[in-house]
Amino acid sequence: MNAAGRAVTAWRAAALALLTCSLASAAPSAVVEQVVWSEDGRRVNLTVQLTDLGAPAEVQFSVSGAPQSRAQARGTAVTGGAQRVTAELDVPAERRWKPLEITMSGLPDLEGQVTLTPPAGNLYVLAVGVATFGKGFANLSATVNDAQSLSATLERQQGRLYRKVTSYLLTEERATREQVERAMADIAARATPDDTVVALLSSHGEVFGGTYYTMLYRGAADDLERTALPQQVIQAFYTSVKGRTLLLIDTCTAGAALLQTKGAQDATQVLVQGINDSVSRASAPGSKAFINEYRAFITAAGPNQQSLESASLGHGYFTLAVLEALGNQFQPDSAIQANIDPNKPRSEIQTLQLLSYVVTRVRNLSADETDARRRQVPQFDPVSVPFPIVQFAVNVPVDLIAGGARASRPAQPDESSGVFMSPQGDDRASGARAQPVRTLTQALALGFSRVTLLPGLHDLPAEVILNRPVTLDGAASGATLRCTSRDVGGLNIQADVTLINVSLRGCPTALTVTAGRLTMRGGEVRGAIRAARVTRASADFQGVQFAENGAGRYTALALLDAAATLDGAVFRDNDYDAIRVEGTSTLTVQGSTFDHNARSATRGAHIWVNGTGRVTLTGSAFSGAHYSVASVNPGTPITRCAITDRTPGHTYQITGC
C-alpha cells in the first residue's frame, strides 16, 4: 500500500474511532410513547422507547411503589441502541384512575421515573346513518358506512384519550325517531363536564313549514312526526349536554324539493340559526342551563348547496374528510390550505384542526362540480375553546437518574442542577439541608411544600400536576419554565399554589386551575397557546404580565364559574381577547393595563363577558382594541371607576362608580 493509501486508511480509522466514541458517549434516554388503560382502571399497557443504553439490561417495573411481579412485559431484555419495551402493569386498587408513579429498574446504573396521568372522562358516540327513505326521497348509498366508520374509529380511543367509549350506532331500521331521541336523552343524562360527546347525523335534510328535519328510516314528508327528527330536538340535545360536544351534520341541505319550491327557506340557514338561537337562550341571564364552553358544530354544506356522496369512495365527502382527520391521514394539499402540516407528528387531533381541514377538504373534493349547488363548503361554529377528539400517541420523557434511586445525593445545592429545595422557609437563608434535583417533577415528587428555582430556564417536557399546596419561588432574579412540547405542558393546579417571580413560556396551556387557589406574584406568561384557564376555582394575579399569547385564536385568561383578581397586571399583544368571563364568574381588576389585545379579531375586546357574574374595573387603562369591555348579556353588572379608555367601543349596562 502506498503512502496515500495508508493516509486514507488512517483517516478512516480515526473517523471510525471518533464516531464510535461519539456514539458511546451519547446520553441514554427513555420516552413513554403509548399508554392504554383498561376499562376498569386495573391495568395499564405502556410502550417505552429506550435509546443509547451503555450495557445490556433486564427492565423491571414498579407502580407507585408496588413491584410488578405479575407484569406481562415484552422485549424487556435490552441489548443497547434503540429498543421498545412494552409492559402490562397491574394498578394498585387505591391508585385506579389516579396518576401513577412508574419506576423502571434494572437499567445499567440508571433508574427511570415517570408519572402517568389517566384519562379524565368518557366518550359517548351517537352515529346515525340512514339509507332507505319513503316517498319523495331517493335512497342513499354511503350513509350507513359513514356512521359505522365513525363509530369504529372513535371506539378505538377507549383507554387512550377516554376511560370508556360508549357508542350508540343507529342505522336503517334502528334509526327511528323513538330510538334516536332515547339515545340523545341517555347521553345527555350520563355525560358529565369531564366527558366528550360526538354525534353524527348522516341522511337527508329538509325544511318543512319553517322547521329543519333530519329524515330517519323510511322518512317521508307526509309522516314527519314518526319518520323525521325536527331541529328542536337536535338543538335541545346540543345545549343540554354537559360534556365537550361536537355535532356533525352530513345531510342534503338543498334537495330537489327545496330547489323547486320558490321562496323556500334554505335548510342550512334554518338549522344553523336554530342552533345559535338555542345556545343564546341557554346562556341568557336566568337560564338554568349548564353553560358549556366546550362545543362546536359543523354542517356538510353551505346555503343552497347539496351534500354529496361517492360510491367509489364509499363515503359522503363530508364524513370522509372527518374520518381522514380523525385517522391522522390528512391529504397534503387540503391540509396545507388549512394551515396544517400533513407531515408533522402529532399526538392528538383537536376540534379546530378537524373543522379547518374538513372545510378545505370538502371544498376541494367538490371543486370540479359544474353545478354551483353541488360545490360544498361546510359551515361551522366553534362556540368555545377547542378540545381534543382523538389521541394517537403520548410523548412523556422518563426521568433517568444516574446511579438509581439508591444513589446518595450531595448535601448542598448544585448550581448546575437547576432546582433545589429545603423543608422550610427561604431555602438559602433557613440553614436547612437542601437537596438538589434535576427537574421540577423530581422536586415536587419529594413532597416538600416549597421549591426554589435557580435563575434561568427550566424545561417542562410534559404537564406538571400540582395537587397539593406548594410554593414555587423564582427568588429575586426570577425563573422561567419553558414548555418544550407544543402538544402537552404547563402547570395543572388542583390545590392552593403560589408562584413567586416564576414565568411560563411557549406552553400549550400554561396555567390550568380547576381546584383551590392560584396566587401568582410577579413573572409573566408569554407565547402560550392558552395562557390561563380557571374553572370553578379562584386566582389572584399580582404584577403579572400576559403577552403574545393565543396562537391567533385563543383567549389569554379564560374564567368559567370562577373568581379572579388582577392587581397591577399587564395584558399586551395577545392575539385574541385578553380575558373571557363565562358563567357566574367574578372578575376584579385594579391598576392594570390592557394594550393591543384581540389582534386577530377585527371587532375584538380586551374583556369579553358572556355570563351572569360580575366585573369590577378600577384605575385601569384600555387601548388598542375595538372594545374595552363587551358583554353579550345586558344584565351582567359591570362597574368601571377611574378608567382611561382609548378604545372606540365599550359595552352594555355600565353602572358607573
From TrEMBL:
Q: Domain of life here?
A: Bacteria
**Which keywords fit this entry according to its UniProt record?**
Signal
Domain called Peptidase C14 caspase: residue spans: 125-381
The answer, when asked if Signal is one of the entry's keywords, is: yes
| Residue segments, region Disordered | 407-433
Matching Pfam families: Peptidase_C14
Q: Where in the sequence is the signal peptide annotated?
A: 1-26
Protein name from the UniProt record? Peptidase C14 caspase domain-containing protein
Specify the species: Deinococcus radiotolerans
